[in-house]
Amino acid sequence: MILSGWKEIAGYLHQGVRTIQRWELNGLPVHRAKSCGQVVAFAAELDAWEKAAPMRLLDEINALKANVEFLKAEVRALKARPQSAETSASPRDKAGTLVN
Fold it and tell me: What is the pTM of this model?
């Protein structure tokens, strides 16, 4: 069976169009017509690729990568925050407050 267009391919694989387009970057076997740029796929190729490629793991890896980037941004933000007066005072300043 020949599937024509992103919607038809996505429907066949029970996924959204954007997901299917993302999977193309990971090797989803789709073919593009040179003249008009239309996308087609063969059901047998999609079935074989789907069995060989663990899609859920790819999506989970992408989600984990996004989480890592979020955490890196949080660490940068925490490092950029000004220190509290207690931690930023010099030892001499701390000694002066103890004497007074």
Answer: 0.53
C-alpha to C-alpha distance for 20 and 5, rounded to whole angstroms: 11
Element containing residue 42 per DSSP (H, E):
strand 39-42
Radius of gyration of the chain from its Cα atoms, rounded to whole angstroms: 27
Tens digit of pLDDT at every position of the chain (100 positions) = 999 999 999 999 999 999 999 888 888 999 987 777 799 999 999 999 888 777 667 777 888 899 999 999 999 999 998 876 556 656 666 665 555 5
- Counted residue by residue, the chain has a size of 100
Segment (H or E) for 26: none
- 2-80 is classed in which CATH architecture? Orthogonal Bundle (1.10)
